[in-house]
């Protein structure tokens, strides 16, 4: 795996062996960013189930100014730390080593981009988006990008957000919510 485009484009990304994380393939990540960007002019990104950190690092590579990555798995945290080090701009990244619900209680400020790829998709996505919305953590021009199995059907609206775009790539479905 590698960074697809932007400032860190072409640099390799380490991934975790085994089944504890499901890294987004280069192809799907590239398509996802073409869907939502593909480039950004600053802003904050939250990756709540970071895995290897590829999505948040790709977002910063493409112009986001700050990223908060949340991961509870210790092995995945080590991989994220290595991938952040590869950027040589560690100051742009914050790794929170905890479960999603604890991280949601600690984060503050607003995010322009949120990635959600939880292990138990539908229930977690609905609850997390409602929580982010209620806590005023989503900017007025936020994009919440949800990656699920293609069989998962997410609701048209969650809180004050509605589906803007939705595409299926192989076994993955990407759903983007906006205000």
UniProtKB/TrEMBL annotation:
Gene3D superfamilies: Vaccinia Virus protein VP39. Keywords: Methyltransferase, Transferase. Its EC number is 2.1.1.171. PROSITE patterns: N6_MTASE (PS00092). Transmembrane segments: none annotated. Signal peptide: none annotated. One of its GO terms (molecular function) is 16S rRNA (guanine(966)-N(2))-methyltransferase activity. Residues 1-22 are annotated as: Disordered. It is an enzyme of class 2 (transferase). PANTHER family: METHYLTRANSFERASE (PTHR43542). This is Methyltransferase.
């Amino acid at each position: 795996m590698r960074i697809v485009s932007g400032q860190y484009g072409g640099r390799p990304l380490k991934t975790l062996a085994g089944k504890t994380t499901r890294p987004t393939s280069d192809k799907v990540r590239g398509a996802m960013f073409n869907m939502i960007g593909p480039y950004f002019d600053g802003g904050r990104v939250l990756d709540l189930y970071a895995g290897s950190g590829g999505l948040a690092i790709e977002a910063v590579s493409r112009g986001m100014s700050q990223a908060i990555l949340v991961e509870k798995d210790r092995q995945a945290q080590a991989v994220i730390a290595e991938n952040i080090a590869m950027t040589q701009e560690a100051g742009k990244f914050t790794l929170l080593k905890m479960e999603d619900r604890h991280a949601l209680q600690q984060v503050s400020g607003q995010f322009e981009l949120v990635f959600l790829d939880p292990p138990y998709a539908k229930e977690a996505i609905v609850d997390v988006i409602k929580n982010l919305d209620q806590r005023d953590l989503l900017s007025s021009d936020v994009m919440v990008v949800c990656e699920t199995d293609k069989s998962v059907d997410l609701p048209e609206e969650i809180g004050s957000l509605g589906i803007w775009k939705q595409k299926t790539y192989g076994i993955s479905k990407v759903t983007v919510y906006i205000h």
